[in-house]
Design goal:
The structure holds two protein chains of two kinds. Chain A is an alpha/beta fold. Chain A has a single domain, classed as Dehydroquinase, class II (Rossmann fold, 3-Layer(aba) Sandwich), CATH 3.40.50.9100. Chain A is built from five helices and five strands. In chain A, strand 1, helix 1 and strand 2 form a beta-alpha-beta unit. In chain B, helix 4 links the parallel strand 3 and strand 4. Chain B is of the alpha/beta class. Strand 5 of chain A pairs antiparallel with strand 5 of chain B, so a sheet runs across the interface.
Chain lengths: 154, 147
């Protein structure tokens, strides 16, 4: 039996990670991240659906449509938070909907976004959104571990 | 791995200070859980808390002198004010994690700027007291240089 269903969605630009060259990110690709997420989730008995989309409206639709189909969410907004203000607000609203259902949501960023120019974390929700930035693929591992603990405590 | 876990002002009030934001767990409880996790994964953790900015700066300098492998810092309110802590962290060449129990980016706008974030390798926030345990656990998986 599954201990919970986890949706991991990745935003625009994450299909190509060839310019990420920091220590924690050696040989990093979306396939490597996906593999790591699947392994980590499987060890805990979590079902995981790992997605990436360069199309912001598709990404938003995924989140809105799947609110009721999953128990927990990991979101890497990637390029979304740099460019699009309208979708960014809509995104925050969708996330509020999830936190209102008391389902765990964690924003994961591959690099420390506070060293880069222009990136900003998701805002809008009052509480209930975790944030992990700068841990490369291990950020997803940390988020999955935390979600597993939250789901098993409920 | 030798790890300093450094906590800033008012964190000693955990458990009684705005429990709807910070939870009911006390700092002593978190410290005990950190030690438990650390001994399981083979880390040595020094867990500290101070309400004084200068003392926190001195602990970071101690970490430099003692060649500590990693610092996990929850600078609390000093996060948003302290250039001195930023500078001290810049001088520490080991691995650095900024940690917060709540997610400051979802709170008052005066908490949206962190002087700590640009001086560290990674930021973990909003995972509650469990964030400490998760970070200590993950440090053994990270490909970082250990003294």
């Amino acid at each position: 039996m599954s201990n919970g269903k986890l949706l991991i969605i990745n935003g625009p630009g994450l299909s190509d990670l060839s310019d990420h060259n920091e220590t924690a990110n050696d040989d990093l690709s979306l396939a490597v991240i996906e593999q790591k997420c699947i392994e980590t989730s499987r060890e805990m008995g979590l079902e995981v659906d790992f997605r990436q989309n360069d199309d912001e409206s598709e990404l938003l639709r995924t989140l809105v449509d799947d609110v009721n189909n999953f128990d927990a969410f990991i979101i890497n907004p990637a390029g979304l938070s740099k460019s699009s203000f309208i979708d960014y607000d809509a995104f925050s609203a969708a996330i509020n909907k999830i936190t209102n259902l008391s389902k765990p949501v964690i924003e994961v960023r591959i690099e420390n976004i506070f060293i880069q120019e222009g990136s900003r974390p998701l805002r809008g929700s009052e509480s209930g959104v975790g944030f992990v930035s700068g841990l490369g693929k291990y950020g997803y591992v940390l988020a999955i571990n935390s979600i597993n603990k939250k789901l098993s405590n409920n | 791995m030798n790890i300093y876990v450094i906590n800033g002002p008012n964190i000693n009030l955990l458990g009684t200070r705005e429990p709807e934001i910070y939870g009911k767990e006390t700092l002593e409880g978190i410290s005990n859980e950190c030690q438990e996790k650390a001994s399981k994964v083979g880390h040595s953790v020094k867990f500290m808390q101070s309400n004084h900015e200068g003392e926190i700066v001195e602990w970071i300098q101690d970490a430099i002198i003692n060649k500590v492998d990693a610092i996990v810092i929850n600078a609390a309110a000093y996060t948003h004010t302290s250039i001195a802590i930023h500078d001290a962290l810049k001088s520490f060449s080991g691995y650095k994690v900024e940690l917060h129990i709540s997610n400051p980016h979802l709170r008052e706008s005066f908490r949206h700027v962190s002087f700590i974030s640009p001086a560290v390798d990674s930021v973990v926030a909003g995972l509650g007291p469990d964030g400490y345990i998760q970070v200590i656990d993950l440090l053994s998986e990270l490909p970082i240089k250990v003294n």
